[in-house]
Specification:
heterodimer, A: 50% strand, B: 108 residues, mainly beta, globular
């Protein structure tokens, strides 16, 4: 059974940093691309970042480029999102999602984590 | 940047058919995926590549895609289908994933 367990969220002050983790199980982690998606309170889904299975291809939404870094440790079956220079508008529930292909592109997100909430506030 | 537009809400009586449009420039040339999200829960993939269903998703969920509009169709709507629905594509021009604005389906 595929499982994605998001963790690392919390309350952080504006300008601060946070690292999210997504522990994967039930599939060969290195064979699949992964993405992070967020949802601000009462709002829709917003794609944040993407990383191919081998780690060679990374993409970022314009709203987080230069502040967030996606990475993965295939030996630990874990995806990460390092978030720096956090702003109030980064407040959201962050979900990791498994892409149904090695590289990504026109493939769906077939499994999602339960989400971890991030609140940026002083 | 590529934009996907959905109506904020759709209302339907039990047993009837709900149709949720997703508008985008030449979306018919893209692979479109649909997600269902119930309150307090993570999204769930219900239709991919415009018309295929993952295992466990009822045949009542179907999709189509042509021109500038993709459509998710829910036949014989049940109270349990009440949720927010999002369309989703990959924009190869920007190397970005894009989600639609979301549609809340209310079963009257």
């Amino acid at each position: 059974e595929v499982q994605l367990l998001d963790s690392g969220g919390g309350l952080v002050q504006p300008g601060g940093s946070l690292r999210l983790s997504c522990a994967a199980s039930g599939f060969t982690f290195s064979n699949y691309a992964m993405s992070w998606v967020r949802q601000a309170p009462g709002k829709g889904l917003e794609w944040v970042s993407h990383l191919s299975g081998g780690g060679g291809a990374t993409y970022y939404a314009d709203s987080v480029k230069g502040r967030f870094t996606i990475s993965r440790d295939n030996s630990k079956n874990t995806l990460y999102l390092q978030m720096n220079s956090l702003r109030a508008d980064d407040t959201a529930v962050y979900y990791c999602a498994k892409v149904s292909s090695l590289v990504g592109g026109s493939f769906p997100f077939d499994y999602w984590g339960q989400g971890t909430p991030v609140t940026v506030s002083s | 940047s590529y934009v996907l537009t959905q109506p904020p809400s759709v209302s339907v009586a039990p047993g009837q058919t709900a149709r949720i449009p997703c508008g985008g420039n030449n979306i018919g040339s893209k692979s479109v995926h649909w997600y269902q999200q119930k309150p307090g829960q993570a999204p769930v993939l219900v239709v991919y590549d415009a018309g295929d269903r993952p295992a466990g998703i009822p045949e009542r969920f179907s999709g189509s895609n042509s021109g500038n509009t993709a459509t998710l169709t829910i036949s014989r709507v049940e109270v349990g289908d009440e949720a927010d629905y999002y369309c989703h594509v990959w924009d190869s021009n920007s190397d970005h994933y894009v989600f639609g604005t979301g549609t809340k389906v209310t079963v009257l």
